[in-house]
Amino acid sequence: MTTHEFTPDHYHVTMGSHDPVLRIADGDTVVTTTVDARGRDSNDELVTEPGNPQTGPFYVEGAEPGDALAVRFDRITPNRRRGFTGALIAERILEPAFVRTLPPKREVNWDVDVEKQSVTLTDPESKIHGYTVPMVPMLGCFGVAPPRGQAISTATSYVNGGNMDYRGHVEGVTVYFPVATPGALFHLGDGHAVQGDGEIVGTGVEISMDVQFTAWVVKNSNIVWPRTEDDDYLMAFGNARPLDEALQYATTELLRWLDADYGLDTESASIMLGQTIEYEIANVFDPAYTVVAKLKKSWLDQIS
Amino acid sequence: MTTHEFTPDHYHVTMGSHDPVLRIADGDTVVTTTVDARGRDSNDELVTEPGNPQTGPFYVEGAEPGDALAVRFDRITPNRRRGFTGALIAERILEPAFVRTLPPKREVNWDVDVEKQSVTLTDPESKIHGYTVPMVPMLGCFGVAPPRGQAISTATSYVNGGNMDYRGHVEGVTVYFPVATPGALFHLGDGHAVQGDGEIVGTGVEISMDVQFTAWVVKNSNIVWPRTEDDDYLMAFGNARPLDEALQYATTELLRWLDADYGLDTESASIMLGQTIEYEIANVFDPAYTVVAKLKKSWLDQIS
Amino acid sequence: MTTHEFTPDHYHVTMGSHDPVLRIADGDTVVTTTVDARGRDSNDELVTEPGNPQTGPFYVEGAEPGDALAVRFDRITPNRRRGFTGALIAERILEPAFVRTLPPKREVNWDVDVEKQSVTLTDPESKIHGYTVPMVPMLGCFGVAPPRGQAISTATSYVNGGNMDYRGHVEGVTVYFPVATPGALFHLGDGHAVQGDGEIVGTGVEISMDVQFTAWVVKNSNIVWPRTEDDDYLMAFGNARPLDEALQYATTELLRWLDADYGLDTESASIMLGQTIEYEIANVFDPAYTVVAKLKKSWLDQIS
Amino acid sequence: MTTHEFTPDHYHVTMGSHDPVLRIADGDTVVTTTVDARGRDSNDELVTEPGNPQTGPFYVEGAEPGDALAVRFDRITPNRRRGFTGALIAERILEPAFVRTLPPKREVNWDVDVEKQSVTLTDPESKIHGYTVPMVPMLGCFGVAPPRGQAISTATSYVNGGNMDYRGHVEGVTVYFPVATPGALFHLGDGHAVQGDGEIVGTGVEISMDVQFTAWVVKNSNIVWPRTEDDDYLMAFGNARPLDEALQYATTELLRWLDADYGLDTESASIMLGQTIEYEIANVFDPAYTVVAKLKKSWLDQIS
Known about the structure:
Strand order of the largest sheet of chain A: 1-4-17-6-15-18-19-21-20
Oligomer: homotetramer
Distance between the termini of chain A: 34 Å
CATH topology of the largest domain in chain A: Jelly Rolls
CATH superfamily of the largest domain in chain A: Acetamidase/Formamidase-like domains
Shape of chain A: globular
CATH class of the largest domain in chain A: Mainly Beta
């Protein structure tokens, strides 16, 4: 396995079948960087147009349609101090009549201290100036080229991944994507120093990142939606509107996973999931909303 | 404060302005029982018609429209061994085309062992016969009389509570309801020995319960939707279709709570919640779905 | 058949199993009046509390659960001059961010001229003062007692009918309701001198009415949702949120109708409806939205 | 103005910034053909991959971002006899539990007789073999390049148009699109000899077409969603899930139209639309659903 160092010199605001920036072998590791959602880099300099610009795509040799691409995030670390967030819950997340009471929209800055692992509001105008939360770095937007030669905005998400804005996509997790085109074409960007459920102010603490990832091919996996795994959980994703439909996709994908990898038929899986499943709402801000259907792996210990 | 022992002799399958079974003072405690969702009691005998039959209603003196009724669940304990669940994820929770592949519906029994705090599938026909999960008893359906003289089926939920089927409604939590009628008229039932998120098989482990609760009045609270509190969390509820709308109600109710009780204006609350809010999907089976907007109380420690 | 003249002296703001105001025989006709949505009568005097107060309920002898109650509206005529409407499209019907731009809410009056069959805006403050549309009188809210002893607010709608606010419910149509309780218990109210699709300003031109209707029982009909028929169309209703789900109910009810009354199996009906069905959006303002699935009866002429 | 005859030799299954097949001047006319949804031409021969393959794109000189492209369909005529449709209402359009009762999916053929203007089911296996409806030819999928360099599947629709599957898109209408890229890049395809509301069997009567259209540029129009106009109606489109959101887009776009072109402020437009607006459900089958908000032009006659 090789480790590649890659310094991006251009970015994409769609996920599509763009020319690869690097070809890597099955199992290789890449050390690279991502700019923030507005196109600013580690020096807080504007280097590309805004809208979740993506580093990549990376061509992974051997990946073919019908396979899954697995990507493990080995490291996700903010590489500058200034982050920023929205300062108001988005209109679509509030009761329609309550929207009339909202003050004007603005953005606020946060100081991201990697050493102290903390994120602090630095907005003297705000009544909670100095408010501090622990740092939990994650990537909001990443994925592979979508099917049918499409190029889809990094504002939204789909079967290929995209702007799922899930706070659980932190260092250490492995994400599986359905491969739609040879080489899979992995893109990544949109780092958050921390984020709440739902990305309800339209942002996490947006920031540029140092990222290391390792990618490999799972042949003939035939997954339909992205899946994420860590030491403790299986997680299946659905990206759609309304949330009800995103939840249908996520739940059905988890059933397919339990069938294919654990031999559980629909009834057995239903009996188990009925009392054990967990759902998370990843984002309710982007054009497609994202629901995560999760199962603690320990619930599978009793299945031979 | 008085503790009342109350043995029900009839039940209701709507929440409404029914004749109270007992009048209690502000702050009193009631020790009583609930039958299971199908109307079976601690002897597994059918004593009333099915459909989440409710014990009560209890009239709490001093409760008036504009107040909140607070109810703390002091004890929720299964009072028999047999529980039952659905054996298939409901059609509405799966991709529409996947529904064509489903086997027939049926129900399965579980053995609820209060001493061992465990719940075990007892269905020799099932491939996972003997599957065991820890017991986490909760109530699925409870609430006060709804506004405007309505009587609303205990199959669904609304501003007054009802069939929210939230796995977090366990022993020790306090729930607040908007009072719509003098005495509030508190109803309770639909115990589950355990339940997963979403109540996706249409049931938790349905069982009859011994319940103790304490009720008191919070004057002039003007809450709109149910709120729940435990040692660690504030939780606001929205009950509606689609989930997107339930989430709007829950999020807006949490904003109202933070404003009224913690003096946080919409912008300050938004900045904080954007990075700290948690959502749970309580149920996606009942006619109204339920979303919970949660905030860890410790996030409020920095607010003077 | 008997014709009854009935003058209401009280009204209901829920549909439920209230004491009947009159018992009529299968096939009888009733001549009565309805107050406007705010409780004002033909003299524009407030005679009851607001919220679509209902005249009735009328007990129809012979109606039993499992039957349908048929009601033909023989006459719906405004009985005063002043109507009123909202002056702004409701927040929930507009893009969430657009809601921030809305001016304050208010109501405007219209002059309803039954002789000229016209409805004219009489609001000197408005830029379109004097704007005139033809009169097309209809009833927004009517129905039978819902199942399970419920009493449901006349703000919303359900399987029993209710506040469907469909502009097509004019003089001459016949509506069928699933009977849930002996006598069916028919309620009616909420007249509009005219209304657009969707009831998007939250009202039609609200007004009190003279109404004549004829009611009869269809034994063992087993309909699930309200159905309406006129000379030209079959119309099936679904009342739910989101519209997608209302449309599912309406479409499935139309399939059941074509099966039961025209012997069309699902495939044949699908082939025909695929190229001939029409949908209308009745209301998108009330808690439950209403979709109408319509089929021109002439499309059935080719079916032997 | 020039009339161009254009014979396509390749097609696209995304709408995007593809190389133009022809550059035309502002006001020019094009006479061309479209293949059916599965890629079959006037000889019923497979000439390209399935999925609403598009003829074009056509580059219209002078069209710039911020402008609207206007396209009038001068002629839409089936150019072969065989059409086909689905034979079952799609699962997502039916009550979830009803889906369990569905027979297997299949397709059926129809004979399209342009001379007689009729469309006849030719499926001896079907119980309604020979069923005939009048021909009303329309195009289901057409539009311009979407913003941000995207390439979006012709299975779905968006701000740029796409697979809206609206039965009202017949000969004689003019459609306006927001221009996102120089030349606008107009694509067209997916002809239907006839279609019902909602495209509920997943198809109209799919067929190849002879099409003539005329295109011109409306400078600085700043429209957001597609708009269609004929002699009688203004029609604004929203493409999204759920229908509730598509309706929000369509309604708000109609408000913008009335403001920009007729000087109607939000309140005046609301008062008028409240009693006059009409909605149509164009499709509930594609990934994005389509709602049309319509206003009869005659309602504007009273506005000076």
